[in-house]
What does this fold into?
Amino acid sequence: MSSQKQTQRRVTTHTPALFIPGGKPALRRAAAFLSAAALLALAGAAPSLPAAAGPDDGKIVTTKGHVDAPKAYWDEQNGTFVLMNEANPYKTGADTYELDKTVNWVGKGYSTRDGKSQYTMTLGDSPSLAFLGEPGQTLYMAPHLTYGNQDPIWAGLGASTKVPTERFRDGVFATDILSVEGPGRMELFRYNPDDAPADVYRMLSSSSTGWHSWLLDKGSHTHNTTTFTRPGRYVVTYRTVARSTDGRIISSKPSKLVWQVGGMQPVLGDGTPTAVPTVDRYNAAPVGDLDAAKYVLSVAPHRLDADPAKNKDADDKLSDIIFTAANKNLKGTLTLYNNGYFLTDLPVVNGTATWSEMLGSEGSQLQAVFTPDTSDANSAEASRWISHKLTYEPGKAESVYSDDGNGSWPEEIPDQANTVLSTQQYTPTSMDYDVTVTPNGNGFSTVEVRFKDPKVRGFMRGGFYAQDDPVYPYLDLEGSVEDGVARFTFRDESFYKGTALRVKMLTHPDMNASASTTEVAANYEPGTKYTAHGALAPDSAPISDAPKPAPVNPSPSAEPTVAPSAEPSAEPSEAPSEAPSEAPTAEPSTVPSVSPSEVPTVPAVPTASAEPSVPAPAPSTPAPSSPAPANPTPSAPAPTSPAPSAQPSTPGTPGHQCVPGQIDGRTKISHGHLDIQATLKDRQLSVGLRDDSGIIDADSTVRPLDSVVWTVSENARRVRTERMADEKLNFMGPVGTAFYGLPQTQQSGLPWPGYNTQDIDYSQLRGPVRLHVVPKVMPEGARFGMFTESLNGADVLLDSTTGKTTIDIDYATHAHANWVFSEPGQYMFDVHYSATLADGTEVNSPVQQLAVAVGKKASDACSFETAVPKDPNAASDDFSGVRRVDSATPGGAGGNAGSGQAGQSGAAQSGQSGQAGASAATGGVNAQGSDSADGSAGGVYPGGVSGGGTGSGSLGQSGVSASSGSSQQGGLARTGFGAVSVAVGGALVLGAGTAMVLRSRRRAS
It folds into this structure.
């Protein structure tokens, strides 16, 4: 042994039991002079130190499924927010749990469809990704979408439908990251690699103060990517905050959520940590002889198998951490740390332990603490050991040895880039800001808002508004203010021509200033540069003022509005500036390939006031769940009739009376989160609509599809661009074809439908649960489809041009997809679930009818223009019964419903389509065509569904105009509807499921 190693051993073996980790330097220095005998005498006395090993064993482990954490609920009794974790850890149905009793675990995960890694992200060369790291850098990832399973975790955050935003200034409430303690950096965002430069939609960050806050919408939740630069244990402290209309700060208590990134899965418990701290195990272990022990801790690039088929995707990104000992019968526990933060506990068996981990692309310091199993005869006298720091660098191999003695106790080395958010209130030194819209020369433009005071914090909203709809824009502008600047890059579509571009600046509740709206262009011209000036409104309401209602989405008329000028003014002005000149301030840049003539002329979107809402009951806080909640006993599903309107009916099409907010007695749902939900109980499948919109009920409710209709506004207009050129998407029509689309991610003002099997116990089944969506009524020449998008490309789920009407759902999940309707008009689908029980019995849910009214004309109609009976043999998924409808043809008179029977369709005469009558209150048809015994909704008229609750963020739309045509081949594989913000930009609710139809589920609203 070299003299250097001998010297090291002489020094370090004098302190074999540094059991005062984290103590003051003076104490550590004093401990260095204690004799081995004195240290042994103290061994077993637990120091007053935080737990450092397996700290989350016994907590409620939320992983391998959909997780909303934190999710903000309203505590009416105390008048504040409570942060919870909504998940399904016990596989008994989604429920809510106290945030600090849970841990999100991100382990390894692979798609069962193609084997691709779902836990790593290697950065490309997009400039928009620069905030994450360097090109080629690999990050740990919780993906925004998983395929074939929900590994490693499908995580987001959200808010209850019952948050009383009318009590908040400007309707604003936000979730803040106050701090992140961990070995690396954490980022939340959405990413669509084929939409550069609008490919990244940033949300939250551990390192950038401007991105410590996320603007929430009640009833919303996110589906986003969460990345970490290094594996290890992260403790994230959150709060949700608002400012009341009388000026008070309303804040939840700071709540901690642990993210365990990498390592072994923590042990599931009831929320109470059960692990023995490493320091206690260490102090209780014998000192032994480290020279004789010959422990070695090493790290090296992962050795791939010689057979490529045995290697998994991203295995080349792994490193092997190996512990060996001279005693080949040694047993014990090896606790690994990364930059001083807990990474994992490993069992040592036969003198060795090995763990393959994705350590990332940045260097770090690894350490291990070994404690022998004193209950084992071969290990009772073995030495405990604190390794020296083992330097990890990507691609290199390093080792440390026990004959160098003990190292110092692992000390946490925080990532210096992480920042702490101040919660102090702040009054801006200037309320002024300038707005510019700059064409990028590639069919995209960027909106930038720059405040005169760089300390202003807040959020950018607004968009392109139809002249008669000031509420929901064609495209949501969404961004956060960082260092006084907010930016949003979007695809500058031709159908924005003639709209009003308005920018809303909403302030963070900690700011002593209120929102304002600036109209940048009253008659927008794509590809044109615009400038405008705006100013926030000073807070003037004293604390003693009585609360005043504040709109959730403040309308422009309710806020200070400053007209734009041709160029930003040099000095702030109280008076409005001149309106923009007819000539643009810069030459228009090239506009996307869709010409204005290709965009269909569609009437403007109806205003939100056209649909009445039902007053919400007093909000309440969900009670924390027991460890393994039981499913409630389902009630028999039964149809409901919407309450009679207090307003008199108005004449509609012949034989019909119009009722506001309804079409043929079905309640309109124009926006919000919806799930077509499957439940399995007593060997019977059922289908219902999980409605989290808050439009009909304040609580999350499961209701029949037959009782509602989804209304899709003009804001859903899109165009198939080159980035959607994958031939699998040819049901859209050629590139340049316009359509109506409901995005995979939530967008304000549009329904956000998905499907949900997460409460089904798949162990009772043989094979998948199948969702059948069979078109029965579509506009003439229309096409329909559904697809999902991820980093691996498009996956088509439904396609009316190929007869694909069934989605195989291989595991309990809650998922969303892009819905495509090629033409405006009325659509009706027979919908049911089917499955095979473990004994081979085929089961089918009763068929329900989903109705969708696409475009303003169909959404404004008071009756459907045609009706067909439900398919009595829906399992055939046959298109032969599809009726093509001329949307200009009025409907015939509807038949009357008999007791327990479906109404008869009206006779079609003189070119008029027959119109069905309302369904009976108790009748129904099951999958075999017989009368339903459970009272589920029957009827022969087209039904539909929709849901409310605005989204907390959306991908921007990209196009419109409906046309049919030949298919377009080839192109880019990855797809999506929207433009998303870059550099600085601001923002997806979990279907908790239930076994009941028509039952409010208050605890998960």
